[in-house]
Design a protein that fits this description.
Methylamine Dehydrogenase, Chain H; mainly beta; five-stranded antiparallel β-sheet
Length: about 400
């Protein structure tokens, strides 16, 4: 699942939305369209259309029913909005690409979407104020964190039925699952802990103390270490998954909010929102490297499948955000790429050719949010794609 802005940044986005005229909400009813403010024309897919996939964008507004906008990667033209539940907040797609699961915060539900037809199935009831979702590598179970009761709801994807809620810590905010699918790790923002869940039995194991305000978690490709980002402590806690014990906290920058690990597992990159930097961590020794300066207010990060480039989205200011490419070979930042206003998420296609940046507002000034496609070969942005109101999560079919 690709996450939106960190918890303290959400009110900023909401405040911006409140300034929009009431008529703006009606714009979501119309089919999204493509604007023409981008730098380059889209190259398309040629004969490789089936392999490129579809981008799914969760739009928080309008209410009481939010929407999901599908964007075929080959055309970069937004399709008809798909009705979801109240306040879509997160989205994850099964490994086989057949179903997208949309977490609806306001209605306490999850909406399954059949990607072959872009049709929504019956809403699945979970807990109150669901926040995050992750799906096991075998695609059999989706885990949804519920903020208010402090639980996680397992959903069996074969039947789309919810199982018994699993108690975890206070305010569960993020979920990550080990590559072998045996354990789900839940970061509890309120209690400063991580709760491991044994997937085979659906039972929680004793919580692991970490730092203050954990907001993100990532697991190395070999499954040996879970890295937990503690926003309020300015640290990252490594957890040894074999024993579920926490190692010594790794000091990074101010207000770290996101993390991504290279495919070879050698380096974890941590986004420091208030320091305007990214800290590389050497996984073998758990030591931080020299901070890499990026744009103002970085919030999210994604790494290309070949591991060569990390893309960092920066809020920058009211005029528009940017994306900073970082060469993982040198840990040097490249020239910033213009994006829309208040970037929320980044997702990269399976073939690594395109990075999609989700923006709270369009750079063109339209009332809708937008998605900015970036060619990873040239680091140039194509025309932005208008989506729905207040988009805050995005995922791409594998």
């Amino acid at each position: 699942m690709i996450r939106r802005l960190s918890r303290t940044a959400v009110p900023v986005a909401c405040a911006a939305l409140m300034l929009l005229p009431a008529t703006a909400y009606a714009a979501q009813a119309a089919a999204p369209r493509t604007t023409h403010g981008g730098a380059v024309a889209w190259h398309g897919c040629g004969a490789n259309k089936a392999a490129r996939g579809t981008v799914y964008v969760a739009n928080f507004y309008p209410q009481p029913v939010g929407t999901v906008t599908p964007i075929p990667v080959c055309t970069n033209v937004a399709g008809k909005a798909i009705p979801a539940g109240g306040g879509p907040r997160a989205i994850a797609i099964t490994p086989n690409g057949k179903t997208a699961y949309v977490v609806n915060t306001n209605s306490g539900t999850v909406t399954p979407i059949r990607t072959a037809t872009n049709t929504a199935g019956k809403a699945i009831r979970v807990g109150r104020l669901p926040e995050a979702i992750a799906i096991t590598p075998d695609g059999k179970t989706a885990y949804v964190s519920n903020t208010d009761p402090g639980t996680v709801t397992p959903i069996r994807t074969a039947t789309n039925r919810a199982g018994k809620a699993i108690p975890v810590g206070s305010d569960p905010f993020a979920i990550a699952i080990t590559p072998d699918g045996r354990t789900a790790y839940v970061a509890n923002f309120g209690s400063g802990t991580v709760t491991p869940i044994r997937v085979a039995t659906g039972t929680a194991r004793p919580s692991v103390p970490v730092g203050s305000g954990p907001v993100a978690i990532a697991i190395t490709p070999d499954g040996r270490t879970a890295y937990v980002v503690n926003r309020d402590s300015g640290t990252v806690t490594p957890i040894r998954t074999r024993t579920n014990t926490a190692g010594r906290p790794i000091r990074v920058g101010q207000a770290p909010v996101a993390i991504a690990i290279t495919p070879d597992g050698r380096t974890a990159y941590v986004v420091n929102r208030d320091s305007d930097t990214v800290t590389p961590i050497r996984a073998r020794t758990n030591t931080p490297g020299k901070p890499i300066p990026v744009g103002a207010g970085p919030v999210v990060i994604a790494i290309t499948p070949n591991g060569k480039t990390a893309y960092v989205a920066n809020v920058d200011g009211s005029a528009g955000g940017s994306v900073t490419p970082i060469s993982t070979a040198t840990n040097r930042a490249g020239k910033p790429i213009a994006a829309g206003v208040i970037p929320q998420a980044i997702a990269i296609t399976k073939d690594g050719r395109t990075a999609y940046v989700l923006n709270f507002s369009a750079a063109s000034g339209a009332v809708e949010g937008s998605v900015t496609p970036i060619s990873t070969a040239t680091n140039r942005a194509a025309r932005e794609i208008l989506v729905g109101m207040n988009p805050n999560a995005m995922a791409i079919t594998p």
